[in-house]
Please model this.
Amino acid sequence: MENRAAIEDENLRQIEKMIRDTPAEINLTRAVIERYEHNKPVSERIAPPRRQAWRKAVAAVAAAILILIAVTGTGLISPAAAEALKQIPGMGRVFQLAGDLGLRVADERGLYNDPGSSDTHDGMTVAATAVTFDGTRVSIGIEGEAVESGASLRTESLLEGMNDVELSIDGLPLSTYAPDGIGIGPFIFPVPDSDKLVLEFADLRNQGGQAFPQHFNLALSFKVTGITGQFMLNIPVELNTYNNVVITSAGSRNYGSLQLQVDKVELTPVTTNITTRLELEGMTVSELYSSRNTIGYDVFDDQGNQLQLLSGNGSSATGGSVLIMDTRFEPFAARPQSITIKPYHYVYKTDSTNEFQLGEDGHVKVEYIPELEMTVPVPAAAE
Model:
C-alpha cells in the first residue's frame, strides 16, 4: 500500500488536471478547506484500487463522469474529550462518536440494527456494530480490536490501514445499481477513536441508477495494512425509516446561461438529500469551472438555521452541459415550514483557477447569487 505522502502527492497532481469538472466538488470543497484551516482531520473516501487523501487548500478530486466526495458533518473532538465521552453510557458507540448529527439521531432513536458480523485475522477482529439505511444513504459503524497478545502491532488507525475495499449487494457488485459507465464508491469517515470508523455509500437512483432494495445482504471485504488475509463482513441491511418527506419539482431559476433546478428534496430523520439539475447554455460543465464560475449552495430552514454539509455525488457525461447532483446535509432539528437554497460562487485568488480567497475568519469567501435563490415550502405533517 502506498504511504500517505505519496498518495497525497498523486492526488494533488490529479486534482490539478481534473478540477472544475462539476460543481459537486466545489460544493464540498468548502467544508474540507475550512477544516484544514483549523488543523482538524477530515474524512477520506476509499474507492478501489486506492484511497484518496486530502491536503489544505486542495479542491476535491472530480471526474467528468462521476464525483464522489465526503466531509464530516461537524468538527471532531480532541482524543482526550473523546475518551471522556466513551465513559458515558452509550457514548462509546460509533454513531454517537461520529461527527454527523444524522447518525447520532439514528443511534438515539434506535433507527439502526446491530449486524452481529465480525472477522478475525492475525489476532485482530474487525466488526460491523451498527448499520442504518434511511433510503438516501447506508451508513455502517465499524470497529477493530486486537484480541490476542500476539496480534501484529499497528501504528496506523483503522481508517488509515483499511484498503482494497469491495462491496456487493445480494451477490451483485455495487456498480449494478449505477447508470452505465458510472461507479458507486464508498465514503469512509473518521471518528475520534483510532479503531472506529463509519463507512457509507448512496445509490444513484436520482441520476438514472437503481434504488437499493429495502432489504438486502451487503458483503464488505477489505484488507488492513500489517494484517494477513482479507476481512469479510456479511451485513444484513434494512430500511430503518418510513414516511420520509419527498418534495418533487421543487422549483427552478435562471441566471444568464445557467438554469438551476431542484428536482427533489428528501427529508428523513437521518438525512436531508437535495437533488439538483444544472443546465448550461453554450458551454459545458468543464468550461463553466474553467471560467472560475464554480457554483455551490447553502441550505437554511425557515428560521435561518444553516444545515451542515455531509457528502455528495453527481454525474455528467464527458463534455456534457447538464450535471445532476445529489447533495446530503444533516437532518433538520425540527420539521421546517420551508427550506431556502442559496447558490453561490466561490471567490478565487487572482490569476488562479483552483485556489480560493479566505476571509479574516479563515473561511473560504463566497458570493451568493440572489437570482438563483429558491425557497421550497415543506408540507405540514399529517395529523
